[in-house]
Design a protein that fits this description.
With about 220 residues, the chain is an alpha+beta fold. The chain has six helices and eight strands. The strands form two sheets. The chain has a six-stranded antiparallel sheet with strand order 5-4-3-8-7-6. It has a two-stranded antiparallel sheet with strand order 1-2. A hairpin with a 7-residue loop joins strand 7 and strand 8. The radius of gyration is 20 Å and the shape is elongated. The relative contact order is 0.11. The mean pLDDT is about 90.
């Protein structure tokens, strides 16, 4: 009986965290109770535990937001994302002759968690893992914004000179993974032919969706 109650409490807490992750504006405890179909006392108990662990926080108006404790968990996931993404990124970089990258959204910024440079080009963009930029700049950021807003058309997003002077970028959102806001793309100082490189980026996005959807072994 106690094991069943503990599992139910855990499931409710995870559902609550997912609601908070979907709400940039935060929610009141009453709103959370209504959306979860739970009583307010139960929600208050869940919030007390989550706040104590740093996974939830209240603002001055009493609205509940994700706590900064989730950033620690997110950072632990990045090496797993990088390992899963590297095969698809290597293939993309070699085929496109451009630096390939996997970028994830963290708030209003894009974070490059995996970068692969082509082996055969004379010069290429040096794009550092861990680089950050606003979602409003760069092909990767624009693709992430489209994913966040539910805009699937156009499937590809381009930019020129947004992050580095003379650099061109093509990126596509990685869809079908509700737990992840990510995009895959390439960046180059040479002209990128969207008709040739675009399909390669979309193929890489499909490969990454499949790789990141596989259950751990």
């Amino acid at each position: 009986m106690m094991a069943a109650e503990s599992a139910q409490t855990l499931e409710r807490g995870l559902r609550l965290l997912r609601l908070l992750a979907d709400a940039n504006r935060g929610r009141t405890p009453t709103e959370l109770a209504q959306e979860l179909g739970l009583s307010r006392p139960i929600v208050y108990r869940l919030l007390t535990t989550l706040q104590a662990e740093g996974f939830a926080r209240r603002d001055a108006h009493g609205r509940v937001h994700l706590g900064f404790g989730v950033l620690v968990l997110a950072q632990a996931v990045h090496p797993l994302l990088r390992a899963a993404a590297l095969p698809a990124l290597r293939a993309l970089a070699e085929q496109a002759g451009a630096t390939a990258h996997l970028t994830v959204a963290e708030g209003d910024e894009g974070l490059a968690v995996a970068v692969v440079e082509p082996s055969w080009t004379d010069f290429h963009v040096a794009y550092r893992e861990g680089s950050r930029h606003p979602l409003t700049r760069g092909a990767a950021g624009l693709a992430l914004l489209a994913l966040r807003e539910g805009r699937m058309e156009p499937p590809l997003h381009t930019s020129t000179g947004h992050l580095q002077e003379g650099a061109q970028g093509i990126a596509a959102p990685i869809s079908g993974l509700p737990w992840l806001e990510a995009s895959v793309g390439v960046v180059s100082f040479a002209d990128l032919d969207a008709d040739k490189v675009g399909p390669l980026v979309l193929e890489a996005a499909d490969r990454l969706t499949s790789a990141l959807s596989e259950p751990p072994r």
